[in-house]
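Hey, I was hoping to borrow your eyes for a little while. A protein chain has come my way and I'm curious about its shape. Take your time with it, there's no hurry, and the full record follows here:
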Amino acid sequence: MTESNELPEAPPVAREIFTGVALEQARVFAELLAGPGVVRGLLGPREVPRIWDRHLLNCAVVAEAVPPDASLVDIGSGAGLPGVVLAIVRPDVTVTLLEPLLRRTVFLSECVEALKLDNVEVLRGRAEELAGKRVFDVATARAVAPLDRLLSWSMPLLHEGGELLAMKGERAQEELDAARPLLEAFGVRHVELITVGHGKVEPPATLVRVVAGRSPRIDTRRSSRAEARRSSRTDTRRRRKR
């Protein structure tokens, strides 16, 4: 690893966000991401210098939007972003890290053990498989899928009044506009774009916040298949334009 790809020290703002024992847990998690996380392909080596500002701090400020004592499912948890970070910064929240790939769930389990997080469970599987079996107060997702697909996965996992907090970037409004028909189909109560982390991260993190309503009966499997077909057609059109 070159010098430019070394893990930096925790920035001063980390002490404001990760308080008490959480700061040491965040440091250990940063080392796990920079070491085993890179070796196993869960994080690119070029991301190591940005682990604190782009990943840990960016995920930690999402806690501002999570209600107290919530049950939270992190869909497609991957390397534990934002799920593990939220579990560190918010010990009052019960976190389920939902991830379908074995190598990732193994890494997540190792992280949970190393960090001694007793408010976390690691669950191998897909959101569609969990629907009808578990419900949560909050669902989170980061760099997993477009918003319309996330709705198909997350809404069946939320009780009425539960919230999807989808971390999105510059295309947040575009994805929100594209998802309007599905928002209506799921009978969502409220949807908005919010920013969190003002004065802590730059730029502030953008979230699409969707409050679940009492949805009509819809076939989520059919909805997921339809979305997959739409995504396939979109990809085909993009390739043709190239």
